[in-house]
Description:
The protein is an alpha+beta fold. It has six helices and 15 strands. A six-stranded mixed beta sheet has the order 3-4-5-6-7-8, with helices on both faces. A four-stranded antiparallel beta sheet has the order 13-12-14-15. A three-stranded antiparallel beta sheet has the order 9-10-11, with no helix packed on it. Helix 2 runs parallel beside helix 3 (119-127). The longest helix has 38 residues, at 2-39. The N and C termini lie far apart (64 Å).
Amino acid sequence: IAAAQCQEDEIASPAARNDVARSGETLRQSDWRDELLKTGIRGKGGQSLEFSRVEALPGTRWLHADAETKEKTPQRVVVSFGPEYAPLEQRQVALAIEEAYTLVPKPKTVIFAAFQFDPEAAKDIDELKWPGVTLLKAQMNADMLTDDLKKKRASNESFWLIGQPDIRLEKIKTGEDKGKYRVEVLGFDYYNTKSGTIDSGGTEKIAVWMLDTDYDGRSLFPRQVFFPMSGEKDGWSRLAKNLKAEIDEELIEAYRGTVSLPFEAGASNRAAVKIVDDRGIESLKIIEVE
């Protein structure tokens, strides 16, 4: 009897835990929908994407909100929220898009909102081409993880649109670094909430950018780190002073720029660039190194 009871507990326990998890997930997403309706999504230069309604979307598992934009010609928007304490993963992106394909009428925009994005998930969102539909990433304010902080939050910036890095890869053809590669960060590509188009931005708001010269598809390992906005006494210079270390001044100057040092292609033949802007918003670009 005891063995049978134990077996029943083992069968029932995962279901019970799953029910609790799904209940908690539903409650959080309800709060996030309310917050999305209240604050909208901030864009570049004071732009915003505002909604006249944000509701639960019945019959879907990976799309969690059905919204309508607040403008002269309202557009349908669907939202997939990432998990609370883990990155939004590639599988969720694929399944949410699969659900979005079945919707009638077709949404104008699919937004993935998360506290963190898995690099491969971010890559899929940026690169997927769906005629007539725009896929966007929105960073969620970490304040929403804690009710006390949420109540005390000074601003209403709960969601921000994440720009996509504009990157140029160059193979060096002459000199001592011939055959190696370098990456130049040209800026951000931002979604213009007024025109519905992607606009190019400059490099002046890049606080830090990191280069992984041999990205393995799982995690970013920065091999070069740059601080374009840092002054003569900030960034690597401040670190050198704090460590009381001798650092090559020419390298210090190079690491304040937007052009990487020469590097060789790694075993994976892929590189990754992560950019953090002056608001602390992160974005990632994965590039093939042939």
